[in-house]
Specification:
The complex is a heterodimer of chains A (about 600) and B (about 300). Chain A has 26 helices and no strands. Chain A is mainly α. Chain A folds into 2 domains: about 180 residues; about 260 residues, no CATH class. Chain A is globular. The two termini of chain A are about 45 Å apart. Chain B is elongated and about 75 Å long. In chain B, β7, α6 and β8 form a beta-alpha-beta unit. Chain B has about 300 residues and is of the alpha/beta class. Chain B has 2 domains: about 220 residues, 3-Layer(aba) Sandwich (Rossmann fold); about 70 residues, Alpha-Beta Plaits, CATH 3.30.70.100. The chains are: A mainly alpha (about 600), B alpha/beta (about 300). Chains A and B meet through α15 and α19 of A and α2, α3 and α4 of B.
């Protein structure tokens, strides 16, 4: 078999290697845990009548599909994004390229490995789907198309990840790009943009434009499609473009579930094919020769001065000869700053401007989206800024401790007179400076939005909000930094470190409040003998003890529509708790790193 | 005075015994060759001596200091060059050496002149402003050696310094090591290129499967390994007469004749061999060549080690 189809050997090697790793079990536990949680929270109330069974079964199936989808969206970009770039980084791609496996075969094998692994995880969860049979009202086509939608979304995300993996030469940019591509595949940016447009226009204008679009569908004859379905419409289009939303879209004449699922699956498959075609064409081309850095430092001050007059050299001059490391300074800190992220001036400027741009666009966007008329919307804008910063932090720091080992420099560093404490402290300080570089524009934008809102309303509350947002942002960044360091310590490769950083940061900042809310809902169940279900998601975050499990939830609650500034204690509690968590993580990293450093 | 000593040095990795009690004694200013097949335990020994690895048992001393008790002091006097290593992206050679100089806590005033000296010694001065990541393999080896010398260590632990280098680069590294020996440094060098070690080292140790099979001066080991001496005789004429004499001489065995050339093994001492030569000449054999085959490090290595994994 392998003689006729040599790429099968690659699939076998890849899949076995993936399954043999410890992380396979962790992924299995994560997927099973998420699915179990989804089924538990979506389980209907006891009073559900038989005629309500269909409705309950539908929401249960949606929850199960959502859990599978979320698992896929979390795992697949990481696996696919590192699939080919890791071969390049390990210098094994050329050996693979020299075999009889064609580039398209390599691509197919990598895709089969990612999808095969996800499929095995999904199969492990399938018995949970059996609970659907306890309730009536699910059609087999709904089920089939629903799973088709989930798998097609995972397929497109895997293809996008592979495309990023072929386009980039380094692991971290490839993985980060894969996750960004994943977000694009879910269609959420389109929905967000449309929702933003809707909030810009008044009701009549928005209705006018959407009806114009609907009438276009009628003119094209699309609206006269199957009798049991009302044809194309804005809602149908949105649901088809955004699979996560389609899972929970209420059925209506315009939205027949199975058709929405089917249309979504077709769109995702088309996207996936597009990504695969691009990947195959990139792989088929002769590999680019590695970029050789050859420019020499400029010692002539006259030349330097003339260069500095041009962009971007008037900001930072990369060609200036670097000074000697001064006595008494932590050599590792200086190294991390001068030759780490901050040393790569071009990338640095990109990060800076990207952060500034994202904050400049993101904060006002979310503020407007949330109504732009109350304090809560300003708080939401601040929360958006936090999310943006937290998305970037793991990408910057997750290889901080693994890179020495991966590049083969660890032994040489260990042989120097620098103590493990000095090295770790240097890395931590440099990491914190990198994060601060992202935080400063975020804080500036926040203050700007707060001040402009305050001047508009002649009320200082928005400025207060931004002042509360600043420590929240700092604590969230600290948690993310600690999580990234921790992931970097335990990972064996940069790819695993990046995925681990996102997973751990996500668990601490998103998973923990969700678990707290779930425990709260469950405690309601035990006291009152009934489970209120996920209809009360908003209420689940209401109690102070739940708020305290997330700085940003506590922050948002503090300025929520109902509360006003009364939830300051949960907020302070959450800041204290998460600072403690971050410090505990960092101490753990310090102890483990010291041990690893000494024992080798 | 012994610069490096190990006493019954043992290392076990998760049940796998990598070193089974190694005893080494390396004098100051020795160039000590450490020979063994892959997986023999060479790198493990070197890593223990450089304080990077803790031994499971036994003792390792460098300049009289225990690697377990005084790792910081040992790092000051030891330069370690690993068999595989990386370089930092985006760093120029001078910056690379400056970083390691600062990491070895060399005062900045001294550092510049030390870097210049090291660059000159390793012949890297013209490449001082080039990026280390753009160097070829041979240049990276030199760069790593320059880094190893930056704090002027008394002891150099070099793990396969010439692996993967072209012949010219190997010769240059060999000459550099001889210069370092002349500068008074003690060098422990592991390598698979036995002919080069034979030229360079005054002592060798042969290790296999974690056991030290032989150690000491090359001649001593050779004498210990060989029970007989290998003699080669070439005659101009009188080859039949010579064959008769050799066949009847006590202490001469396994005579192998090829035309006018004879290859044989001898248990005779130097005085008896002189007598044998005199007999040949007195009996009218015109001897063109009479010498003992010295043997090479390869011969020693092959006769001492058993092979296999």
């Amino acid at each position: 078999m392998f003689v006729w189809f040599p790429f099968l050997a690659l699939i076998r090697r890849e899949l076995l290697e993936t399954l043999r790793r410890r992380r396979a079990f962790l992924f299995l536990a994560l997927v099973c845990g998420l699915s179990l949680l989804a089924v538990l929270v979506a389980w209907p109330e006891e009073e559900t009548r038989v005629y309500m069974g269909g409705f309950a079964a539908q929401s249960l199936m949606s929850a199960l599909l959502l859990s599978l989808m979320v698992s896929g969206l979390l795992l697949v970009p990481g696996l696919a994004g590192s699939a080919i770039v890791s071969e390049r980084v390990n210098d094994s791609y050329d050996q693979l390229h020299l075999t009889l496996i064609r580039p398209s075969g390599i691509l197919a094998a990598k895709l089969a490995n990612v999808l095969g692994f996800y499929f095995l995880l999904a199969v492990a969860v399938l018995p949970l789907g059996g609970v659907l049979f306890f309730l009536v009202g699910i059609e087999w086509r709904d089920c089939l198309y629903g799973f088709a939608l989930v798998f097609s979304l995972v397929f497109s995300c895997a293809s996008a990840g592979l495309m990023c993996s072929t386009l980039f030469q380094r692991t971290i940019p490839a993985i980060v790009a894969s996750y960004v591509a994943m977000i694009a595949c879910t269609g959420l940016p389109v929905v967000l943009a449309l929702a933003c447009l809707e909030s810009f226009f008044d009701y009549n204008t928005w209705n006018y434009w959407t009806s114009q679009l609907d009438s276009l569908f009628v003119q094209w004859g699309l609206a006269a499609a199957p009798s049991r379905y009302g044809g194309f419409s804005m809602e149908f289009l949105l649901c088809s473009l955004c699979p996560p939303i389609s899972l929970f879209a209420p059925s209506s004449p315009n939205i027949v579930r199975e058709y929405v699922y089917l249309a979504g699956a077709v769109i995702q498959c088309l996207l996936a094919l597009g990504f695969l075609v691009v990947s195959a064409s990139v792989l088929a081309r002769a590999p680019r020769p590695p970029k050789v850095q050859s420019e020499r430092p400029i010692d002539d001050t006259a030349i330097l001065d003339s260069r500095r007059k041009n962009f971007p050299f008037y900001l930072i001059d990369p060609l200036r000869r670097k000074e000697q490391i001064s006595d008494g300074r932590n050599a590792f800190l200086i190294k991390e700053i001068r030759w780490g992220l901050l040393g790569r001036t071009t990338s640095l400027m990109r990060f800076f401007y990207a952060s500034l741009l994202l904050n400049l666009l993101g904060v006002p966007l979310v503020t407007i989206l949330m109504g732009a008329s109350d304090n809560f919307s300003v708080a939401c804008g601040a929360a958006a800024s936090m999310i943006l910063t937290l998305l970037i932090t793991p990408a910057l720091l997750s290889n901080a401790l693994i890179k020495e080992e991966e590049q083969g420099n660890l032994d040489m560093v260990r042989m120097t007179l620098l103590s493990p404490r000095e090295i770790l402290w240097g890395k931590l300080q440099a990491g914190a400076m990198n994060v601060l570089f992202l935080l400063i524009p975020a804080l500036v934008v926040l203050l700007f939005v707060g001040a402009s809102e305050s001047m508009g309303w002649a009320d200082w509350t928005p400025v207060n909000i931004t002042l509360y947002a600043a420590p929240t942002l700092l604590v969230c960044a600290l948690v993310s930094l600690a999580a990234s360091m921790c992931a970097s310590l335990y990972a064996h490769s940069t790819g695993a470190a990046v995925t681990g950083s996102y997973a751990l940061s996500g668990f601490l900042l998103v998973g923990l409040p969700l678990v707290a809310a779930f425990v709260y809902v469950m405690s309601t169940f035990s006291r009152e003998g009934r489970l209120s279900g996920f209809y009360s998601l908003d209420d689940a975050f209401e109690p102070p003890e739940v708020c305290a499990f997330s700085p940003w939830v506590a922050f948002l609650r503090m300025f929520g529509e109902r509360q006003g500034i009364v939830h300051v204690y949960p907020w302070l509690g959450s800041l204290a708790l998460f600072t403690l968590i971050a410090v505990a993580l960092l101490i753990h990293v310090a102890i483990r790193y010291h041990h690893k450093f000494l024992k080798g | 005075m012994a610069m490096i000593e190990t006493h019954d040095l043992k290392k076990v990795y998760n049940g796998f015994v990598a070193l089974k009690g190694i005893n080494l004694n390396i004098e100051a200013q020795d160039i000590y060759g450490f020979i063994g097949p892959n997986g023999a335990g060479k790198t493990t020994t070197i890593r223990i001596l450089s304080t990077l690895l803790e031994p499971t048992g036994g003792q390792a001393l460098v300049d009289g200091m225990d690697v377990m008790k005084s790792p910081y002091e040992i790092k000051k006097i030891v330069g370690y060059m690993p068999d595989s290593f990386g370089v930092y992206d985006g760093m120029r050679l001078r910056e690379y050496l400056d970083f390691f100089g600062a990491a070895y806590k060399i005062p900045s005033k001294k550092r510049k002149s030390i870097i210049d000296d090291v660059l000159q010694l390793t012949d890297l001065t013209p490449r001082a402003d080039d990026y280390v990541s753009a160097f070829s393999r041979g240049m990276k080896q030199r760069c790593c050696l320059a880094k190893t010398l930056i704090h002027d260590p008394k002891v150099l632990l070099l793990d396969e310094p010439a692996s993967g280098l072209d012949p010219r680069a190997r010769i240059e590294i060999r000459e550099l090591l001889k210069t370092l020996r002349d500068m008074g440094k003690t060098i422990l060098i592991s390598s698979h290129i036995l002919s080069e070690l034979g030229d360079m080292c005054n002592k060798v140790a042969i290790i296999e499967r974690g056991e030290l099979l032989a150690a000491g001066g090359f001649r001593e080991i050779l004498a210990g390994v060989r029970q007989t001496r290998e003699i080669r005789v070439e005659v101009l004429d009188g080859a039949d007469e010579a064959a008769t004499i050799l066949a009847n001489s006590p202490g001469i065995v396994n005579v192998d004749r090829s035309g006018n050339e004879f290859q044989m093994e001898s248990t005779l001492g130097s005085a008896e061999l002189t007598q044998l030569l005199r007999t040949l000449i007195e009996r009218g054999v015109h001897v063109l060549f009479f010498s003992e085959e010295k043997g090479t490090l390869e011969d020693v290595f092959l006769s001492v080690t058993q092979g296999g994994l």
